[in-house]
Amino acid sequence: MTPPSRTTFKTSETLFEEFKALANRKLDAQDSGEMIQILNLILEENRKKHRCLFENMQSAFSLQKLLFHEDGNPSDFIIVDINREFENRTGLKKEELLNQRASRIIPEIFQEILEIFKEFHRVSHKERAISMEKFFPSLDKWFSINVFSTEPGYCATIFTNITKRKVAEETLRASENKFRAIFESAKDSIFIKDRDLRYTHINKAMEKLFNFSRQDLVGKTDEFIFGEIQSKKIKEKDKLVLSGEVLTYDSTRSINGTNHSFHTIKVPLKNAKGEIFGLCGISRDITGRKQNEEKLHIQQERYELSTKAGRVGVWDWNLETDEFYLDPIIKEFLGYEDDEIPNDIQVWSSYIHPEDTQPVMSAAQSCIEGKTKEYVYEHRMIHKDGGIRWIGVHGNVIRNGKGKPMRMLGTDTDITERKFEEEAKQRLEEQLRHALKMEALGTLAGGIAHEFNNMLGTIIGFSELTIENLPKDSKNRRNLEKVLLAAGRATEMVKQILAFSRKEEEVRRPIYLSHIINEALSLIYSSLPSTIDIRAKIEESTQPVLADQTQIHQVIMNLCANAAHAMKEEGGILEIVLKEIEFQQTTSYHKELSPGRYQQLTISDTGHGMEEETLSRVFEPYFTTKKVGEGTGMGLAVVHGIVKNYRGEITIHSDVGKGTIFHIFLPLIQQEKALEEEEAAVAIQGGTERILFVDDEPELAEVSKKMLEKLGYKVVMKSDSIEALETFRLAPEQFDLVITDQTMPHMTGVKLVKELRSIRTDIPVILCTGFSEAVGEENYMAYGINAFVMKPILKKEIAAVIRRALDNKS
Question: What is the DSSP string of 753-800?
Fold first, then answer.
């Protein structure tokens, strides 16, 4: 058999097939040689393969011969062989290393490698190989090391660089530690669930919140924590997350009987293949935030309600950019919607009342310039309907670090009602002052009237006594009759003063306007200046009106006073006309009057007249064009109220520079005219009875005594009430009648009557007074008084009253 040629390349597999063919036949010496040759070729081929593998390994490889101490432990080693990767890893060349002691050629890592061989030698009798991972500081690299024995005294080492893996592992470990630290230290509840929605991980915050340990919760579902009802809703959301969705939502959960609000984020967890194997969730307890939000919401609602109820709105003016914000409620003050007025300071300023614009701007500018600390002002603005609204402004300026004004902000308040209330209060105060003034006037008038009536009584009494002693054709008698006439006018004037000044409840009764007007004229004549020509055309009333006499006086006096005021500078004509008219049907001019007969009272003047605007407000309470101190503005308002209250009507016509005319219409009532005084020639009746006459004015008492004695009566006169009581007490049966004054020192007439009645219950009493607030015609009977007479005492009047009291005492 011809041996294989060296130049022909055969694989070890081919050579092995040739070797088996030779082995299957009978061998001779030549065949044996060929077989040996083939075996050598196979071995050579394998050696080459192994060397090729050895040199191209991705791991560093070295073969070492160990050198030992006498104690049998390795002390050094000689490198027998290395591959290229070893050279690459260490930077050492094969020719520098082979057959050299490692302690000399690689001292930097010698000791570290020797420790490995020592460890291998220690366990080599048990293990054929050892593996470890080791960091070489000198190389700053990690290696995976495998050591195994090839033959006694030799060992092979495979070094695999695992630095990247180790760095990755360290990075992963650091990341895991960081995650664990965050996971455990987070204040929010963090949890992980598997696909069965069982908890696999929970952090400490979740343990604390739910008061469960990890051992309690891991492996459990939400039903364990929240119960079936709540967990059902959670499960629905978790299924969405396991399908790939990321959920963020707020929810409320009951924990240990207390409701908690949570903000939760849940994300799906995926493996390297992208398969979802569970979910991770973070739940933040936002109960406090929700409560604060609710409080804030409530506060916001309260703020909105308070601003609406309190009519307060906020404004903000940027002084740098001129930007202006205006709360919509402020626009509502003027009747506008938010979009009807732009947020512009110039536009808004145009709604300020023209008379207030300059003062408002000046006040704001003073605050901006630092002249005033705050911007506080009350001013008028024009409403959408043309009316006036009062606005209270309160603002402050915000300045930068250098003191430069940057913004001005504040509030506007609708103070219209307050202003109206203040005006009403002021009017009421004026009315109260007027009432107090009138009350004081009434008190003063009453005191004057009392004294004046006593004087008039003396004058009238002595005049009447003297006239009776004079012949009818006597000149002195005629003179005294004129004195009596003047005294009578004076008496009526006192009555009118009292009627005008006292405040009595309204008492309506049939009255004849002609009589009331004539009485009022006497007072008007005496009170107005001579520059005013008073002209009266008063028709005698045939039918009365139902009214209060004092109020009618007030109407006449108010209208005449206004007319006089209009003519006080240049004088003029005051004309008063009374006549009866009849309306057959309601007219457009007198639309508030029903058909029927009326008394028409016309009071006109030739004064300065009124403009249309003034004329439209003339009957408003407290409206006046007079200067302070000249009037309260209540006169015409009161007149209007009185007339309307009597189902009448008042009209006014005025021309500037020509004058004013008032027409008053009051309905007549059907009643036969009754004479107010009996003018029939009836003889004055006297008598012979005994009378006790009491008055603290000696002259009046004297003239009254003489008057009564002229009538035939026996009179005992006393000027002291205490003395009169004692006289009566000594002989009560000697008197048939007592006539007493009301206003006396020591004891009033009413009190004297009470004492007299305690002595003798059936004694008739007549009370006389010039003025008394305690007793009058309307209430004298309540004091047990039989008759009441106003001073001054007239002979004819007192004679009639005495006879009625004596004749009716039963």
Answer: HHHHHHH-TT--EEEEES--SS--TTTGGGGT-SEEEESSPPHHHHHH
- Give CA–CA dist 648/664, Å, rounded: 7
Q: What kind and span of H or E run contains 373?
A: none
Report, in angstroms and rounded to the nearest whole number, the Rg of the chain calculated over CA atoms.
65
Task: Taking each helix axis as running N to C, give the angle between helix 635-645 and helix 549-566, from 0 to 180 degrees, rounded to the nearest 10.
Answer: 140
Asked whether the beta carbons of 573 and 533 are under 8 A apart, the reply is yes
166 secondary structure, DSSP code: H
Burial class of residue 80, CB neighbours in 10 A (0-12, 13-18, 19+): middle
Q: What CA–CA distance (Å, rounded) separates 627 from 99?
A: 135
Q: Which two tokens stand for residue 211?
A: 């008061």
H or E stretch at 535: strand 532-538
Task: Report helix, strand or coil for 77.
Answer: strand
Give per-residue pLDDT as tens, 383-434: 999 889 999 999 999 999 889 999 999 999 888 888 888 888 887 887 777 6
Q: What angle do the packed helices 549-566 and 513-527 form, to 10 degrees?
A: 40
The pTM score is: 0.39
Residue 345 burial (CB < 10 Å; 0-12/13-18/19+)? Answer: middle
**716: exposed, middle or buried (C-beta count within 10 Å: 0-12, 13-18, 19+)?**
middle
Amino acid of residue 8: T
Q: Where are any strands of DSSP class E within 95-219?
A: 129-136, 141-151, 154-161, 189-194, 199-202
Q: Are strands 545-547 and 388-399 parallel, antiparallel or unpaired?
A: unpaired
